């Protein structure tokens, strides 16, 4: 079984995605039906939808979209990691009114805003509210911003965090040492988990299993198997691979773990972190 904690779906008739105009390879609809056909072939049994940085006015509509997909007979989708604005004064009110049957976690894309946003008192107070509510916060930052991630995690010790895409390493430029040092430091924070997802997008296109192995080996070494979750990052993964390739690559990268450890990474940890019943 595989629990995909990072699926993006795109419906341009229903929602607005301003950033897509600058990414032609992804600027089309990406449907649940197309994803599901491959997912069922490769062993994906459960899915969390990850917010797709829709226009701010459409954030609630995106969560409603996920809620509808959850109601389909036999749906793989178990909930949403929803978009929100922890830097805004209205965040606490938003958190009070959201449907917790749908919203299982929160993400705010932080590499498209000034670095100071995640370091403000209000932002940190609102992330602390997520901790009290039992909702994990996904951190998506560039590798150069990882010290900011560390500061945020330290400021909110009672919140649960998930670092997306292994911390967005510059694999194409082989900027290993600085990234590895930050990952080592981040792994000392027990309330931080890391997501094995998205890394093929940072390879520049010329990659193999051996290209990825040192980076993932470092993740496995620094984070115990019970603090790693798996995500497809579909359809962003299609920039340099495809869903089936990423699943196969992940199995190979995790092959030296014990069976129990692989089960934890591929599905058990996700159920625990986002409180999804079996």
General description of the model:
- Helix content is 37%, strand content 15%.
- The protein is an alpha/beta fold.
- It has one domain (2-273): Metal-dependent hydrolases (TIM Barrel), CATH 3.20.20.140.
- The protein has an 8-stranded parallel beta sheet.
- Strand 5, helix 5 and strand 6 (161-163) form a beta-alpha-beta unit.
- The longest helix has 15 residues, at 259-273.
- The radius of gyration is 17 Å and the shape is globular.
Summarize the structure.
Helices cover 37% and strands 15% of the residues. It has helices at 32-42, 59-70, 91-97, 121-133, 146-155, 176-186, 209-222, 243-253, 259-273; strands at residues 2-7, 44-50, 77-83, 103-109, 137-140, 161-163, 192-196, 228-230.
Secondary-structure arrangement, i.e. CATH architecture: Alpha-Beta Barrel
Beta-strand portion reads 15-25%
- What's the CATH first level? Alpha Beta
Number of domains: 1
Helix content: 25-40%
Radius of gyration: 17 Å
Supply the helix-strand structural class. Answer: alpha/beta
- Give the helix tally: 9
Listing every helix as H and every strand as E from the N terminus to the C terminus, the arrangement reads: EHEHEHEHEHEHEHEHH
Strand order within the widest beta sheet: 1-2-3-4-5-6-7-8
List the helices and strands and how they pair.
Layout: E1 2-7, H1 32-42, E2 44-50, H2 59-70, E3 77-83, H3 91-97, E4 103-109, H4 121-133, E5 137-140, H5 146-155, E6 161-163, H6 176-186, E7 192-196, H7 209-222, E8 228-230, H8 243-253, H9 259-273
Parallel strand pairs: 1-2, 2-3, 3-4, 4-5, 5-6, 6-7, 7-8
Helix pairs in contact: 5-6, 6-7
């Amino acid at each position: 079984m595989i629990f995909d904690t990072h699926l993006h779906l795109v419906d341009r008739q229903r929602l607005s995605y301003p950033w897509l105009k600058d990414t032609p390879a992804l600027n089309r609809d990406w449907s649940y039906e197309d994803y599901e056909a491959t997912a069922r072939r490769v062993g994906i049994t459960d899915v969390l939808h990850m917010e797709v940085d829709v226009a701010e006015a459409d954030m609630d509509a995106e969560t409603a979209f996920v809620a509808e997909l959850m109601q389909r007979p036999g749906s793989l989708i178990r909930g949403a990691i929803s978009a929100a604005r922890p830097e805004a004064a209205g965040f606490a009110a938003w958190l009070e009114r959201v449907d917790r049957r749908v919203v299982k976690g929160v993400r705010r894309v932080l590499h498209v805003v000034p670095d100071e946003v995640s370091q403000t008192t209000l932002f940190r107070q609102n992330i602390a509210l997520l901790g009290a509510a039992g909702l994990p916060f996904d951190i998506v930052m560039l590798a150069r911003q990882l010290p900011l991630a560390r500061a945020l995690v330290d400021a909110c010790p009672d919140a649960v965090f998930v670092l997306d895409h292994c911390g967005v390493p510059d694999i194409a430029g082989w900027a290993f040492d600085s990234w590895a040092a930050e990952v080592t430091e981040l792994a000392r924070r027990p309330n931080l988990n890391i997501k094995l997802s998205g890394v093929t997008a940072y390879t520049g296109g010329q990659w193999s299993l051996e290209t990825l192995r040192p980076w993932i080996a470092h993740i496995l070494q620094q984070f115990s198997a019970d603090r790693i979750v798996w995500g497809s990052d579909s359809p962003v993964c299609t920039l340099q691979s495809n869903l089936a390739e990423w699943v196969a690559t992940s199995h190979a990268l995790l092959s030296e773990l014990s069976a129990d450890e692989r089960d934890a990474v591929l599905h058990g940890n996700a159920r625990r972190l986002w409180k999804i019943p079996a």
